[in-house]
Protein backbone atom coordinates (compact mmCIF):
# COMPACT_ATOMS: atom_id res chain seq x y z
CA UNK A 1 0.00 0.00 0.00
CA UNK A 2 1.30 3.47 -0.85
CA UNK A 3 0.50 6.68 1.00
CA UNK A 4 0.45 10.26 -0.15
CA UNK A 5 2.02 12.97 1.95
CA UNK A 6 0.18 16.24 1.54
CA UNK A 7 2.15 19.45 1.19
CA UNK A 8 -0.84 21.41 2.50
CA UNK A 9 -4.15 20.84 4.24
CA UNK A 10 -6.08 19.93 1.08
CA UNK A 11 -5.76 16.77 -0.98
CA UNK A 12 -5.78 18.34 -4.44
CA UNK A 13 -5.58 14.94 -6.09
CA UNK A 14 -9.15 14.49 -4.83
CA UNK A 15 -10.43 18.04 -4.60
CA UNK A 16 -8.32 19.99 -7.09
CA UNK A 17 -9.83 19.02 -10.42
CA UNK A 18 -11.37 21.92 -12.30
CA UNK A 19 -9.17 24.66 -10.82
CA UNK A 20 -7.73 25.42 -14.25
CA UNK A 21 -11.23 26.13 -15.59
CA UNK A 22 -12.78 27.87 -12.59
CA UNK A 23 -9.82 29.75 -11.09
CA UNK A 24 -8.83 31.84 -14.07
CA UNK A 25 -6.65 34.93 -14.09
CA UNK A 26 -8.68 38.08 -13.53
CA UNK A 27 -7.04 40.84 -15.58
CA UNK A 28 -7.58 43.56 -12.97
CA UNK A 29 -6.04 41.54 -10.17
CA UNK A 30 -3.27 40.46 -12.54
CA UNK A 31 -2.50 44.11 -13.34
CA UNK A 32 -2.05 44.82 -9.63
CA UNK A 33 0.20 41.78 -9.09
CA UNK A 34 2.36 42.52 -12.12
CA UNK A 35 2.72 46.17 -11.12
CA UNK A 36 4.04 45.17 -7.69
CA UNK A 37 6.65 42.96 -9.33
CA UNK A 38 8.14 46.12 -10.79
CA UNK A 39 10.83 45.65 -13.43
CA UNK A 40 11.81 42.18 -12.20
CA UNK A 41 12.86 39.93 -15.07
CA UNK A 42 13.16 36.67 -13.10
CA UNK A 43 10.21 35.69 -10.91
CA UNK A 44 9.61 32.78 -8.57
CA UNK A 45 6.00 31.63 -8.15
CA UNK A 46 5.61 29.45 -5.05
CA UNK A 47 2.42 27.46 -4.62
CA UNK A 48 1.80 28.17 -8.28
CA UNK A 49 -1.22 25.91 -8.71
CA UNK A 50 -2.46 25.90 -12.29
CA UNK A 51 -0.44 29.01 -13.14
CA UNK A 52 -2.90 31.87 -12.68
CA UNK A 53 -1.36 35.35 -12.64
CA UNK A 54 2.06 34.31 -13.91
CA UNK A 55 3.50 36.99 -16.21
CA UNK A 56 4.14 35.68 -19.71
CA UNK A 57 6.68 38.34 -20.67
CA UNK A 58 9.28 37.43 -18.02
CA UNK A 59 11.15 34.34 -16.89
CA UNK A 60 9.05 32.52 -14.27
CA UNK A 61 9.99 29.46 -12.25
CA UNK A 62 6.90 27.84 -10.74
CA UNK A 63 6.97 25.68 -7.60
CA UNK A 64 3.95 23.42 -7.01
CA UNK A 65 3.88 20.24 -4.85
CA UNK A 66 0.51 18.91 -6.12
CA UNK A 67 0.68 16.71 -9.21
CA UNK A 68 -3.01 17.36 -9.87
CA UNK A 69 -2.40 21.08 -9.97
CA UNK A 70 0.77 20.82 -12.05
CA UNK A 71 -1.16 18.79 -14.61
CA UNK A 72 -3.65 21.65 -15.08
CA UNK A 73 -1.06 24.21 -16.12
CA UNK A 74 -1.80 25.40 -19.68
CA UNK A 75 0.61 24.54 -22.46
CA UNK A 76 1.94 28.09 -22.87
CA UNK A 77 3.39 28.05 -19.33
CA UNK A 78 6.56 26.23 -18.37
CA UNK A 79 6.13 23.05 -16.29
CA UNK A 80 6.22 23.55 -12.54
CA UNK A 81 8.88 22.09 -10.27
CA UNK A 82 7.73 19.60 -7.62
CA UNK A 83 8.90 21.21 -4.38
CA UNK A 84 7.55 22.90 -1.26
CA UNK A 85 7.86 26.43 0.05
CA UNK A 86 9.68 25.34 3.19
CA UNK A 87 12.59 23.83 1.23
CA UNK A 88 13.17 25.66 -2.03
CA UNK A 89 15.86 23.99 -4.17
CA UNK A 90 17.36 27.34 -5.12
CA UNK A 91 20.43 29.45 -4.41
CA UNK A 92 20.32 32.52 -2.19
CA UNK A 93 19.14 35.73 -3.85
CA UNK A 94 18.60 33.96 -7.16
CA UNK A 95 15.38 35.74 -8.26
CA UNK A 96 14.51 39.37 -8.81
CA UNK A 97 11.03 38.93 -7.30
CA UNK A 98 8.69 36.29 -5.92
CA UNK A 99 4.97 35.73 -5.74
CA UNK A 100 2.83 33.50 -3.50
CA UNK A 101 -0.82 33.85 -4.41
CA UNK A 102 -3.59 32.37 -2.24
CA UNK A 103 -1.24 29.67 -0.98
CA UNK A 104 0.38 30.65 2.34
CA UNK A 105 -2.54 29.21 4.34
CA UNK A 106 -1.57 25.82 2.89
CA UNK A 107 2.03 25.83 4.14
CA UNK A 108 2.60 23.50 7.12
CA UNK A 109 5.45 25.71 8.39
CA UNK A 110 4.48 29.25 7.42
CA UNK A 111 7.45 30.97 9.01
CA UNK A 112 9.97 28.68 7.31
CA UNK A 113 8.24 29.10 3.95
CA UNK A 114 8.34 32.89 4.21
CA UNK A 115 11.98 32.81 5.29
CA UNK A 116 12.76 30.70 2.25
CA UNK A 117 10.98 33.19 0.00
CA UNK A 118 13.11 36.01 1.35
CA UNK A 119 16.29 33.93 1.16
CA UNK A 120 15.98 33.34 -2.58
CA UNK A 121 14.53 36.75 -3.54
CA UNK A 122 16.51 39.94 -4.15
CA UNK A 123 13.53 42.25 -4.52
CA UNK A 124 9.80 42.37 -3.83
CA UNK A 125 7.70 39.47 -2.57
CA UNK A 126 4.02 39.68 -3.51
CA UNK A 127 1.51 37.71 -1.46
CA UNK A 128 -2.22 37.40 -2.08
CA UNK A 129 -4.24 36.09 0.82
CA UNK A 130 -7.49 36.62 2.70
CA UNK A 131 -8.02 38.35 6.02
CA UNK A 132 -9.93 36.00 8.31
CA UNK A 133 -11.12 38.94 10.41
CA UNK A 134 -12.99 40.38 7.40
CA UNK A 135 -14.86 37.26 6.28
CA UNK A 136 -18.05 38.25 8.08
CA UNK A 137 -18.50 41.22 5.75
CA UNK A 138 -19.79 38.80 3.14
CA UNK A 139 -23.47 37.79 2.88
CA UNK A 140 -22.36 34.15 2.61
CA UNK A 141 -21.74 34.25 6.36
CA UNK A 142 -25.54 34.04 6.78
CA UNK A 143 -25.68 30.76 4.86
CA UNK A 144 -22.32 29.05 5.43
CA UNK A 145 -21.00 30.02 8.87
CA UNK A 146 -19.43 26.57 9.23
CA UNK A 147 -17.37 27.06 6.09
CA UNK A 148 -16.26 30.57 6.99
CA UNK A 149 -15.29 29.38 10.46
CA UNK A 150 -12.93 26.91 8.80
CA UNK A 151 -11.53 29.65 6.58
CA UNK A 152 -10.96 31.94 9.55
CA UNK A 153 -8.82 29.29 11.20
CA UNK A 154 -6.86 28.52 8.03
CA UNK A 155 -5.79 32.01 7.02
CA UNK A 156 -2.80 33.33 8.96
CA UNK A 157 -3.24 36.74 10.58
CA UNK A 158 -2.12 39.59 8.34
CA UNK A 159 0.08 40.92 11.15
CA UNK A 160 1.88 37.57 11.31
CA UNK A 161 2.62 37.66 7.59
CA UNK A 162 3.91 41.22 7.76
CA UNK A 163 6.10 40.54 10.77
CA UNK A 164 7.57 37.34 9.33
CA UNK A 165 8.19 38.73 5.85
CA UNK A 166 10.01 41.70 7.35
CA UNK A 167 11.50 44.48 5.30
CA UNK A 168 9.25 47.29 4.15
CA UNK A 169 5.73 45.83 3.99
CA UNK A 170 2.58 47.28 2.51
CA UNK A 171 -0.89 45.79 2.97
CA UNK A 172 -3.53 46.59 0.34
CA UNK A 173 -7.26 45.94 0.46
CA UNK A 174 -7.95 44.72 -3.07
CA UNK A 175 -11.39 45.50 -4.51
CA UNK A 176 -13.04 42.50 -6.18
CA UNK A 177 -14.81 43.44 -9.44
CA UNK A 178 -18.41 42.38 -9.97
CA UNK A 179 -17.47 40.19 -12.95
CA UNK A 180 -14.29 38.72 -11.46
CA UNK A 181 -13.34 35.59 -13.41
CA UNK A 182 -11.19 34.06 -10.67
CA UNK A 183 -13.64 31.73 -8.96
CA UNK A 184 -12.77 32.17 -5.29
CA UNK A 185 -15.72 32.56 -2.95
CA UNK A 186 -15.98 36.35 -2.77
CA UNK A 187 -15.73 36.62 -6.57
CA UNK A 188 -19.40 35.59 -6.66
CA UNK A 189 -20.65 38.23 -4.25
CA UNK A 190 -23.11 39.49 -6.90
CA UNK A 191 -23.83 36.08 -8.44
CA UNK A 192 -25.20 33.90 -5.62
CA UNK A 193 -26.58 31.31 -8.04
CA UNK A 194 -22.99 30.22 -8.72
CA UNK A 195 -22.81 28.39 -5.40
CA UNK A 196 -25.51 26.00 -6.55
CA UNK A 197 -23.02 24.66 -9.12
CA UNK A 198 -20.90 21.79 -7.70
CA UNK A 199 -18.06 22.70 -10.10
CA UNK A 200 -17.80 26.14 -8.53
CA UNK A 201 -17.70 24.71 -5.02
CA UNK A 202 -15.11 22.09 -5.98
CA UNK A 203 -12.72 24.85 -7.03
CA UNK A 204 -12.91 26.46 -3.58
CA UNK A 205 -10.91 24.40 -1.11
CA UNK A 206 -12.92 25.51 1.92
CA UNK A 207 -15.86 23.34 0.86
CA UNK A 208 -13.70 20.24 1.22
CA UNK A 209 -13.66 20.86 4.98
CA UNK A 210 -17.45 20.90 5.23
CA UNK A 211 -19.28 17.60 5.46
CA UNK A 212 -21.54 16.53 2.62
CA UNK A 213 -24.52 16.88 4.94
CA UNK A 214 -23.68 20.45 5.93
CA UNK A 215 -22.85 21.40 2.36
CA UNK A 216 -26.19 20.02 1.14
CA UNK A 217 -28.02 21.99 3.82
CA UNK A 218 -26.26 25.23 2.83
CA UNK A 219 -27.00 24.73 -0.86
CA UNK A 220 -30.61 23.73 -0.23
CA UNK A 221 -31.33 26.82 1.88
CA UNK A 222 -29.60 29.17 -0.57
CA UNK A 223 -31.43 27.62 -3.51
CA UNK A 224 -34.77 27.92 -1.76
CA UNK A 225 -34.15 31.58 -0.86
CA UNK A 226 -33.13 32.38 -4.43
CA UNK A 227 -36.20 30.66 -5.82
CA UNK A 228 -38.57 32.41 -3.40
CA UNK A 229 -36.96 35.83 -3.77
CA UNK A 230 -35.96 35.92 -0.11
CA UNK A 231 -32.26 36.26 -0.97
CA UNK A 232 -32.96 39.29 -3.13
CA UNK A 233 -35.17 40.87 -0.50
CA UNK A 234 -32.36 40.58 2.05
CA UNK A 235 -29.23 40.89 -0.07
CA UNK A 236 -30.31 42.07 -3.52
CA UNK A 237 -28.30 45.29 -3.31
CA UNK A 238 -25.17 43.19 -3.67
CA UNK A 239 -26.08 42.46 -7.29
CA UNK A 240 -25.46 46.11 -8.24
CA UNK A 241 -22.21 46.72 -6.36
CA UNK A 242 -19.46 47.36 -8.97
CA UNK A 243 -16.84 45.96 -6.61
CA UNK A 244 -16.57 44.50 -3.13
CA UNK A 245 -13.84 45.35 -0.64
CA UNK A 246 -13.98 42.13 1.31
CA UNK A 247 -11.20 40.00 2.74
CA UNK A 248 -8.82 39.88 -0.25
CA UNK A 249 -5.44 41.35 0.69
CA UNK A 250 -2.29 42.05 -1.24
CA UNK A 251 0.94 42.21 0.74
CA UNK A 252 4.16 43.51 -0.76
CA UNK A 253 7.42 43.03 1.11
CA UNK A 254 10.53 44.79 -0.10
CA UNK A 255 13.93 44.08 1.42
CA UNK A 256 15.34 46.70 3.77
CA UNK A 257 17.69 49.13 2.09
From TrEMBL:
<dbReference type="InterPro" id="IPR013216">
    <property type="entry name" value="Methyltransf_11"/>
</dbReference>
<protein>
    <submittedName>
        <fullName>Class I SAM-dependent methyltransferase</fullName>
    </submittedName>
</protein>
<dbReference type="GO" id="GO:0008757">
    <property type="term" value="F:S-adenosylmethionine-dependent methyltransferase activity"/>
</dbReference>
<feature type="domain" description="Methyltransferase type 11">
    <location>
        <begin position="44"/>
        <end position="122"/>
    </location>
</feature>
<dbReference type="Pfam" id="PF08241">
    <property type="entry name" value="Methyltransf_11"/>
</dbReference>
<keyword id="KW-0808">Transferase</keyword>
<dbReference type="InterPro" id="IPR029063">
    <property type="entry name" value="SAM-dependent_MTases_sf"/>
</dbReference>
<dbReference type="GO" id="GO:0032259">
    <property type="term" value="P:methylation"/>
</dbReference>
<keyword id="KW-0489">Methyltransferase</keyword>
Amino acid sequence: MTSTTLAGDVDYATHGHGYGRQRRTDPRLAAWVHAQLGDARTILNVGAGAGSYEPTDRHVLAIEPSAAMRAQRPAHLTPAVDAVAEKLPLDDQSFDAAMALVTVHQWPDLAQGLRELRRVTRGPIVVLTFDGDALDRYWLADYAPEMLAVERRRYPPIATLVETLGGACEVHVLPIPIDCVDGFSEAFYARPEAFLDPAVRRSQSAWSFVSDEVQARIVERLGADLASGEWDRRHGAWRARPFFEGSLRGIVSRPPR
